Amino acid sequence: RLSKKVEKILNHQLEKEANASQIYLAYGVWADSEGYGGVANFLFRHSQEERDHMTKVMEYIMERGGRPKIGGVEAPPADPKNIQECFEKIFQHEIDNTNAIYDIVSLSQEEKDWATWNFAQWFVKEQIEEEAMVLDIMDQLKIAGGPKATSESLYYFDSQIGKREDET
Ligand code: OFO
């Protein structure tokens, strides 16, 4: 059974994943309105992935005899100024989420809650993939010319991002 402290940190993570889903959704809408249909498609798919992360945490809490808290979601941040900022903000967000996962690992280790420790390892691996994915997209954007990208190279970038496979 989960301790109150572990239940609390897992509920905090559940909330973070729900907020992450909302961020990707909002940025997807922004990207679509800017004409980046491929990027929007990618962000919408990723929003769904974040929701799946939320569900994963929720199910684990229930499985371990805890009570998931389903609260409201935070309003997403303001629209990014441009496509660079869009991915920089997403990268920052993923780093922040990685740190939250590390807090779960630390607490479960402290409490010798090895089931939660083991559960959190899936997320440790997932965060490695997510950070690598965003870094890779940022590299592609750099190759496209970064802030000096032409509309042709951005068009190509957008179509490539739209075709990216989901990682899980
Ligand atoms: Fe849930 O992995 Fe991104 O935030």
Automatic annotation (TrEMBL):
Cellular compartments annotated: Cytoplasm
Q: What class of enzyme is it?
A: oxidoreductase
Q: Which Gene3D superfamilies match?
A: 1.20.1260.10
One Pfam family cited in the UniProt record for this chain:
Ferritin
Task: Give yes or no: UniProt keyword Hydrolase.
Answer: no
Q: Which InterPro entries match?
A: Ferritin, Ferritin-like, Ferritin-like_diiron, Ferritin-like_SF, Ferritin_DPS_dom, Ferritin_prok
Q: What is its EC number?
A: 1.16.3.2
Q: Does Cytoplasm appear among the keywords?
A: yes
Q: Which UniProt keywords apply?
A: Cytoplasm, Iron, Iron storage, Metal-binding, Oxidoreductase
Q: Where does the Ferritin-like diiron domain start and stop, copy by copy?
A: 1-145
| Reactions mediated catalytically | 4 Fe(2+) + O2 + 6 H2O = 4 iron(III) oxide-hydroxide + 12 H(+)
Give the protein's biological function. Answer: Iron-storage protein.
| Similarity section | Belongs to the ferritin family. Prokaryotic subfamily.
Q: What is this protein called?
A: Ferritin
Query: From which organism does this entry originate?
Result: Mesonia profundi
